[in-house]
Design a protein that fits this description.
Layout lengths: L7 H9 L5 H19 L2 E4 L17 E5 L26 H8 L3 E6 L19 E2 L2 E5 L5 H8 L5 E6 L5 H7 L2 E4 L19 E6 L2 H11 L17 H4 L8 E5 L9 H16 L3 E5 L4 H19 L17 H14 L4 H22 L5 E5 L15 H5 L6 H6 L3 E8 L6 E7 L5 H14 L12
Parallel strand pairs: 2-3, 2-6, 9-10, 9-11
Antiparallel strand pairs: 1-3, 4-5, 6-8, 7-8, 7-12, 11-13, 12-13
Length: about 475
């Protein structure tokens, strides 16, 4: 049996009935890593043995998962995709890892990413780029490229990614996985190597909407070790997944449907809208007029924060000497230092914070008219390796549809909606909602997934 084709619930049921043992599952996925990872470069560090207690009553007992290599794991190398930390062995665990272990999940590997989360293609990893499992000549997206690639290729059942400006959703779109960027503060960032602290979010990547709901239910909630985690009562996402909201209205922001979309993306988005209309869901055109300012504001805010966060890696307190920082990390630190300098602080940083407030207010206003928004995840399917590396602006524009939600702090879910007609590469759409509307977003995505035949509708790139 192909265990990697199962959902989390299906594999958990097999383990519960003792049709397969935890050790057999672990060895099955380890074998897939040994066969597939040399060509994909999705996993940087493998775990050697099962590191959770033997308790078959735990809800995630025996489920193998991977984590983006930006989460500290006690005794397991953690690099953040950078040579600065190539030999770093943490002495404590990230909260998200602790929660998953306590629920019985088994870490099988740490996944490749753009160094420090700086990138949209995982080409900025100091350990080499991740190849897209659908076509090795193309990128897997970034910065959590290894996360999405490991899940869709069946090297892990799910992954914990990190989303600062689209780093969970863009790889999910490019690789055909489901990826959730949560409301800021819904999940703990404790033990996450920070890129931009006011934008970073911890979230799951899975094969199906139900898988993502199961993992979110496990990792969401307040953490006293993270002052930015909110005291918000988290619902049982799996219990409400099959609910249907009456009178649901989905907004279509006209700024997201301009000429920047490739024909294949535009076609798949229209097909997705048609599926929802067949369910009787209403659509309404809305406007988010500040969308075009989001990328500029983001790169002022994010680089300012990363220049501060990376200052500790000076070879004395943490890491190796600063000369081994990659080109993109140096660029972003320089931009951040410039933005925060005395002569430009008001002109750039303060102005960006004001734009951020206005973008959030605009989303709040729109969500008084509609329940959710439906937009493309990316203007294009995956692009070729090396295609945008010498054009930073084009690379940054890959995140034009994902960045606004990070700035506003609201949730967004990327869902696969088919393959492009020309390159046969995956395309995804996003559902956006107001703060703490993850339950409604997951319900609505689940309805779509079932309507098109389930999460295996678009096949998988590797058997």
């Amino acid at each position: 049996m192909k265990l990697h084709h199962l959902t989390i619930a299906q594999l958990r049921a097999m383990l519960s009935k003792k049709l397969v043992s935890r050790q057999e599952v672990f060895e099955y996925f380890k074998k897939r890593i040994h066969v597939l990872n040399p060509s994909l470069n999705a996993i940087l560090t493998e775990t050697k043995e099962i590191d959770t207690k033997e308790d078959s009553t735990l809800p995630l007992y025996g489920i193998p998962f991977s984590m983006k290599d930006t989460y500290v794991t006690k005794g397991i190398r953690t690099t953040a995709g950078s040579r600065v930390l190539k030999d770093y062995i943490p002495q404590y665990d990230a909260t998200v890892y602790t929660k998953l272990k306590n629920h019985g999940a088994v870490l099988i590997g740490k996944t490749n990413c753009d160094a420090w989360g700086h990138g949209s293609s995982t080409e900025n990893s100091d350990f080499g780029p991740v190849k897209n499992p659908w076509n090795h000549a193309y990128v897997a997206g970034g910065s959590s490229g290894g996360s999405a690639a490991s899940v869709i290729s069946g090297m892990s059942m799910f992954d914990i990614g990190e989303d600062t400006g689209g780093s969970i959703r863009l790889p999910s779109s490019f690789c055909s996985t489901v990826g959730l960027k949560v409301t800021y503060g819904l999940t703990s960032r404790y033990g996450c190597i920070a890129y931009a602290s006011s934008l970073d979010t911890v979230g799951p990547i899975g094969k199906s909407v139900e898988d993502v709901a199961i993992i979110l239910e496990t990792i969401a909630g307040n953490d006293p070790l993270d002052a930015t985690s909110v005291r918000h009562k988290t619902p049982k996402y799996t219990q409400t997944l099959r609910d249907k909201k009456n009178g649901l209205v989905i907004g279509l922001p006209k700024e997201y449907f301009k000429n920047s979309l490739t024909p294949s993306v535009a076609k798949k988005i229209q097909e997705t809208i048609a599926v929802y209309k067949e369910m009787g869901i209403a659509f309404k055109e809305v406007s988010l007029s500040l969308t075009d300012y989001a990328i500029a504001a983001y790169y002022l805010l994010a680089t300012s924060e990363t220049s501060s966060n990376l200052a500790r890696y000076d070879g004395i307190r943490y890491g190796n000497e600063r000369s081994v920082f990659g080109k993109e990390a140096k660029l972003r630190m320089m931009l951040g230092a410039f933005t925060l300098s005395a002569g430009y602080y008001d002109a750039y940083y303060i102005k960006a914070t004001k734009i951020r407030s206005l973008i959030k207010q605009e989303f709040d206003t729109v969500f008084k008219e509609v329940d959710l928004l439906l937009v493309p995840t990316s203007p294009t399917p995956a692009f070729k390796l090396g295609e945008k590396m010498n054009d930073p602006l084009q690379m940054y524009l890959s995140d034009i549809f994902t960045i606004p939600t990070n700035i506003a702090g609201i949730p967004a879910l990327s869902v696969p909606c088919g393959l492009s007609e020309d390159t046969k590469l995956p395309i995804g759409f996003q559902l956006l909602g107001p703060a703490f509307s993850e339950g409604l977003i997951l319900q609505t995505a689940y309805r779509y997934e079932n309507a098109v035949g389930g999460f295996m509708k678009f096949d998988t790139p590797i058997e």
